Amino acid sequence: GALSALNEDRGSSKGTGYFQIDATYEFAPKWNVIGHVGKVSYKNYGELNYTDAKLGVTYDASGWILGGAIVGTNANKQWYSGQRTVGGANNTRDLGTTTLVLTVAHTF
User: Fold this and answer.
1) Is the per-residue pLDDT at 8 higher than 80?
2) What residue ranges in 29-107 does DSSP mark as E strands?
3) Would the pTM of this model clear 0.85, i.e. be above it?
4) Gap between the Cα atoms of 105 and 76, Å rounded
């Protein structure tokens, strides 16, 4: 099956790379729109390749950065899922699903 294909010895993954582009644009005083696109490319294990993206906004509240962003990937659920036990039941969870991320940051 699929797992046995991943376990085949196809050589080292040395040479795997990640390329990203990030941008921030201030559209009003203290307000920024932020964006990110990244691509991971696995050498010899191409079925694991995926692209991730983020689009959000931040606000500078007197040195406290408040943010919200939509983050997601096109990662293949076959390879990027995990199991967890909740209330005694096993659940499979898609680790590459699109989600909302809220942040609060401050530099001291």
Assistant:
1) no
2) 31-41, 50-61, 64-73, 81-86, 89-94, 99-106
3) no
4) 31
